[in-house]
């Protein structure tokens, strides 16, 4: 490594919603809440959630598509979002017993709930059947268990059939999935359901991995083709659920992300000082001075995000039918359902943590220790590529007098690799014990999906901020059993 090259920092500037700016001016409230409830804290706000919901609805209304949007709860544990979705007349996609049970406990009607859990045991099926919640059927064992539950309870069940393995164009095989039935298996099952009388078919469902508009279009047109085949047999498909997976845009500009990735490659080749802890390539490997692979990170910059991503799908032309997707849906009068998780939570939460210590590692890197652990800011992405916000405890502005400092944020697990972020962070002032570090836009997956209680650390508290009243309140999802 050429150690004489000066370190040049690459910023990744996040998009910040006005409620975040408003909340961060309440420094005393934040400091006191951290003291009272511990660090880190997850702070949420319903306003962006509502805005995101309304922008999806606006697109669907514009195309005259009957619809219901089910918020995929698994992306965030707070009950406030599930409640908000229901208050807006939409629904909640529940993926476990407790997710469903809590929604029922706060009075969300069964018609606004759907159960998509990947594993559905008898207890969960009994709860769903007992309350008349639609169940997304994934496999024959689940179907057989549901039959038993229906027989034992004496109640009918409503199901949606999950389809997977759609054909790729030009005989290139199928889209891979471990979920659902192949279209022809789904057809056979649905015909069988029609001949029995306790389990009622109410629609088709899919949820695709990845963010390809073209693949969504394939899945929609092939689902509609299946519904047309069923219609020819006299079987009506009232709903089509196209799942979640709508892209989110986290960053203010594309150039910053491109520049970061370029410089990351140079760093991995040893052509510049590291941008990441121990020169981690975030998925890029240097083998004999050749680069392999690419950054294994979420695509943090997206022009086609949220409702624009939905609109791109609806506006695409179906090759199967030679018509735009939106028309195929509206012509059939089918209710379009979707299950966005991450995208409804865009801008709806942040994670804040206290600085516990400053030190240097054996290579002289500044380490800023936070009272949190890396499972509290974690997704399947190799790193969360958004600059955090550093709030200093000092009040007087001496910024001009200081040089920036660069270092890494480390956490509370007893591992050498316990980094909160792998990227090197720029601090405009030298961090002080008691300073606060804010991670914006973490509500979707980042704060909850992988959080663990290793070391018997307590889970972070979840608070909801009301920007109209400048008021913070604890969410009761965890308390409610
Ligand atoms: C995870 C999941 C979702 C939500 O996906 P997002 O990427 O958060 O929008 C919706 N439906 C199903 C079945 C899922 O597994």
What does this structure look like?
There is one protein chain. The protein is of the alpha/beta class. The chain has twelve helices and 21 strands. It has helices at 18-24, 27-37, 46-62, 79-87, 97-105, 122-131, 140-153, 183-195, 213-232, 254-268, 306-315, 325-332; strands spanning 41-44, 67-72, 91-94, 113-115, 134-137, 157-162, 199-205, 239-241, 285-287, 290-292, 317-318, 323-324, 335-338, 349-360, 366-370, 389-391, 405-410, 425-427, 436-440, 461-466, 471-474. Helix 9 (213-232) links the parallel strand 7 (199-205) and strand 8. The chain is globular. 44% of the residues are buried. The model has no long low-confidence stretch (mean pLDDT 96). The structure holds pyridoxal-5'-phosphate.
Strands, total number: 21
- Per DSSP, the total helix count is 12
What proportion strand?
Answer: 15-25%
Distance linking N and C termini:
55 Å
Mean pLDDT: 96
Rg, nearest Å: 24 Å
Q: From the structure provided, what is the oligomeric state, counting identical versus distinct chains? A: single chain
Low-confidence stretches: none
Ligand roster:
pyridoxal-5'-phosphate
Structural class given helices, strands, pairing? alpha/beta
Sheet of most strands: 9 strands, mixed
Shape: globular
């Amino acid at each position: 490594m050429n150690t004489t090259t000066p370190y040049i920092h690459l910023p990744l500037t996040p998009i910040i919603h006005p409620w975040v700016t408003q909340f961060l001016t309440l420094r005393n409230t934040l400091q006191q809440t951290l003291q009272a409830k511990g660090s880190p804290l997850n702070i949420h706000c319903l306003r962006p959630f509502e805005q995101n919901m309304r922008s999806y609805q606006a697109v669907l209304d514009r195309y005259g598509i009957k619809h219901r949007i089910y918020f995929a709860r698994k992306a965030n544990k707070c009950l406030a979002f599930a409640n908000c979705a229901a208050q807006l007349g939409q629904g909640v996609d529940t993926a476990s017993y407790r997710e469903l049970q809590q929604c029922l406990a706060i009075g969300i009607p069964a018609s606004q709930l759907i159960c998509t859990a990947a594993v559905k045991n008898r207890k969960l099926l009994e709860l769903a059947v007992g309350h008349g919640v639609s169940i997304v059927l994934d496999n024959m064992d689940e179907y057989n268990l549901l039959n038993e539950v229906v027989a034992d309870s004496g109640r009918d069940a409503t199901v949606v059939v999950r389809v997977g393995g759609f054909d790729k164009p030009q005989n290139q095989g199928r889209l891979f999935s471990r979920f659902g039935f192949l279209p022809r298996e789904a057809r056979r099952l649905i015909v069988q359901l029609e001949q029995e009388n306790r389990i009622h078919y109410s629609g088709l469902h899919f949820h695709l991995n990845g963010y390809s508009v073209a693949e969504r279009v394939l899945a929609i047109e092939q689902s509609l083709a299946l519904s047309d085949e069923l219609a020819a047999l006299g079987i009506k498909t009232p709903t089509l659920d196209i799942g979640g997976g709508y892209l989110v845009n986290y960053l203010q500009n594309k150039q910053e992300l491109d520049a970061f990735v370029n410089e990351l490659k140079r760093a991995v080749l040893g052509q510049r000082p590291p941008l990441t802890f121990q020169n981690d390539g975030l998925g890029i490997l240097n083998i004999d001075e050749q680069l392999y692979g690419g950054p294994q990170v979420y695509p943090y910059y997206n022009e086609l995000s949220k409702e624009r991503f939905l609109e791109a799908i609806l506006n695409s032309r179906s090759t199967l039918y030679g018509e735009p997707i939106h028309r195929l849906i509206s012509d059939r009068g089918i209710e379009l359902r979707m299950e966005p998780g991450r995208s409804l939570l865009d801008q709806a939460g942040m994670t804040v943590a206290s600085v516990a210590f400053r030190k240097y590692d054996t290579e002289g890197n500044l380490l800023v220790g936070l009272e949190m652990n890396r499972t509290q800011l974690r997704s399947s992405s190799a790193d969360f590529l958004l600059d955090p916000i550093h709030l200093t405890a000092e009040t007087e502005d001496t910024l001009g007098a200081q040089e920036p400092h660069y270092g890494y944020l480390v956490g509370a697990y007893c591992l050498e690799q316990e980094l909160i972020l792998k990227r090197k962070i720029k601090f405009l002032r030298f961090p002080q014990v008691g300073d606060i570090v804010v991670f914006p836009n973490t509500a979707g997956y980042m704060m909850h999906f992988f959080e663990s209680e290793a070391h018997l650390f307590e889970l972070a508290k979840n608070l909801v901020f009301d920007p109209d009243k400048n008021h913070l309140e604890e969410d009761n999802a965890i308390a409610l059993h």
